Amino acid sequence: MGRGSSGLHAAPPVPRSAVRQRFDRLMREVAKFGAVGGAGLLVNLLVFNLVRHVTDLQVVRASVIATVVAIVFNYVGFRYFTYRDRDKSRRTKELGLFLLFSVVGLVIENGVLYAATYGFGWDSPLQSNIFKFLGIGIATLFRFWSYRTWVFRALPAEQEQAVAGAESFLGPRPGAAKPRVRQRVG
């Protein structure tokens, strides 16, 4: 060892395993889906309660209107925020599948509310909101699976790498980790 050298060198960065990278990517997707979904939940509940307050519509009809407004809101959020890096070449098919799976989610969500209201007679404003929220939660599980699997499909690996390479001249994405610089001590 040379003079003034402690002999310690920073270890080279350990590459993360492919499983860890996939898990991290899934967690980012879940967080983005949750952010858009949370905003959509607020839109859904606000429209639901507004329609119930200012009209004489039955509870499930008011809920269907609120769900449709939230579906439109969510599509914009998912397409341009959560899944903005996904394949955009099939917009018509994407929108058709989104509407199909959204209608299935609408049936799940409002089916829970319908069963509570007309099956058990639980129709106070508080009970309606609780069962609307529960229905949204159950439908959200279905929507997450169906949207990521069928609607907003991931680009094939080679296309994803080409897009990443083409965008690399823009510099690191906001919030992206900065590359580690290996420094020698001494």
Give the fraction of residues assigned to helices.
55-70%
Mean pLDDT: 83
Element order, helices and strands? HHHHH
Note the overall shape: elongated
Q: How many E-type strands?
A: 0
Description:
The protein is mainly alpha-helical and 186 residues long. It contains five helices and no strands. It starts with 17 loop residues before the first helix and ends in a 19-residue tail after the last helix.
Descriptive terms for the model:
elongated, 69% helix, single chain, mainly alpha
Set out the fold topology:
Layout: H1 18-54, H2 59-82, H3 91-120, H4 125-151, H5 157-167
Helix pairs in contact: 1-2, 1-4, 2-3, 3-4
Please outline what is shown here.
By secondary structure, this protein is mostly helical. α1 (18-54) packs antiparallel against α4, α2 packs antiparallel against α3 and α3 (91-120) runs antiparallel to α4.
